[in-house]
Amino acid sequence: MILVGENIQILSKVVSAALSAKDAAPLQELATRQAASGVHLIDLNIGPARKHPAETMTWLVDAIQAVVELPLSLDTTNPVAMEAGLAICRCKPLINSASGTRDSKERMLPLAKKHNANVVISVLNDGGIPSDAASRAESIMETIDYATGLGIPVEDIWVDPILMPIGVGQQDILEAVELVKMLPDIAPGVKSIVGLSNVSNGAPRQLRHWLNQVMMVILEEAGLYSAIVDSFDQDLIEVNAGKRPEITSLIAQVMDGESLDISAMSPEERSYYKTARVMLGRELYSPSWLEI
Amino acid sequence: MERFLDRYPGTIAGLGLGKEGKLLAVGGQNALPFHGFEGRAAKPRLALELSDREPVDYPAGLQELYAGVSSCPVAWAKQGAQELGAELLCLNLGSMEQDIPAPTIAAGVRRIAEAVDVPLIVFGLGDKEKDAAVLPVVAAECRGHNLLLGPVLKENYQQIAPAALEHGHAIIAQIPMDINLAKDLNIRLGKFFPLERVVIDPLSCAAGYGLEYAYSTMERIRLAAVVHDDKSLQCPIIARVGKEVWKTKEAMQDTPRGVLWEAATAFTLLLAGADLVTFRHPESLRQVKALVG
Lengths: 292, 293
Hints:
The complex is a heterodimer of chains A (292) and B (293). Chain A is of the alpha/beta class and 292 residues long. Helices cover 47% and strands 16% of the residues of chain A. In chain A, helix 1 crosses helix 2, helix 9 packs parallel to helix 10 and helix 9 packs across helix 11 (245-255). In chain B, a hairpin with a 6-residue loop joins strand 1 and strand 2. The A-B interface holds A 167, 283-288, 291-292 and B 179-184, 187-188, 224, 228, 230, 232-233.
């Protein structure tokens, strides 16, 4: 799976301080460490960038391109900042993100065509986030039609089914997985992507990696193309690189509904097993899901 | 006529409250609310609220109703149990808002428990520190009365629950309208406290003030327990309706309307899965009793 490193993001104190002080060093260090960890793109999340949007994005893109070769994912809701960044990217960038809202269709999607960029398109529309897989599919088909009408090639479209935190709704996660499975049939050629860490938003910090990793394996089995991830979760990078086949196969067995002997498992396997069960909606989630 | 009936895998724990020989059973059903035709039903338990100090948060209509007894909690309790027909009482520790030592408060609770034959629910303030200081003292002082004691929160369960366990009381595990947190607190409690001695309080709202959220949370907790057999949620549920309803302007301005408001809210939450409901007005309690009896 293609991994996009999420660690340069405005909600981080280090990042927001460095951005406002135009101090490149901490940001460049984050970029080089992410590249070294094995991710394939670097996300640059500057938020809505209300002050000096174009200057902020071009400064950041220049600073990061000075130290890493990887393609960038430009992450802002501000079309002015987005366009300024797209104009100076050396490799084909990823627009993160557009959606089916009227504003996004009018101001963000045309930038993908103009600058020949890949573009994340989420299932969000003016009515909000659709609830089940079928209504997510309906929303995304409408936006894909619009995007291809603008001349954006289908292979440049990366569909985001929107992964909600597990504490908000377990069923909602399964609907997003279902949409990933449906995509090759309903929209052949498009790619898919999720913001993986959102699934564990609100969960105890030291346990979030279990949820993220298991979700990644479940989505990969469903056919997911790409995920925005915590580059510093080394286990996650290794699972994705195929270096932990026993973990992938354990999660696949839970997905298939096989009855497994928990007493024969190591503590680590047990944690993956329990996490897979809450992720698949077999067990009601609670923040202490690993303790039962 | 052909009948299509469901059988459910989960059973709600049956809990006995009150003194030896006068136990009142709560919960114990293996079917959804009012689905007695599909399994064993539980009798909803309706409690009358009182306070251990003259209530400051009761509107005039209620103040008047209890004017003869509200300055003496023992008399108030006797009136509720003997004249107004409550099968259990819910004592709110209003005295905790004043600067009264915990042993004095606890002795007051014991006198009330000794004065009546019906079981007693005892609610602290919901203040994590004050409750942790007072409720363990109440638990020790009222040993043998088999109270239902709470609220126990995720911030203070380690202080309150061991005292309740040691002195033979059941507890109320309270969480703010969230099924995942309800499960979390019960998992933590379950490590040292028997879950069949726990009642869940997911918080209630009056009609017109977010009742649908309370309904939905209770309903989901009950479905998880009975239909999906989630062992950590198979506890009775309590709805503190009186406290919520009588602070609404609809109830405060007009007592007969308040009675209807309280009865309608209570019945709605019984449908959602509440097993224990508390009232402030005896008339609304009577109306709901007639409806479910």
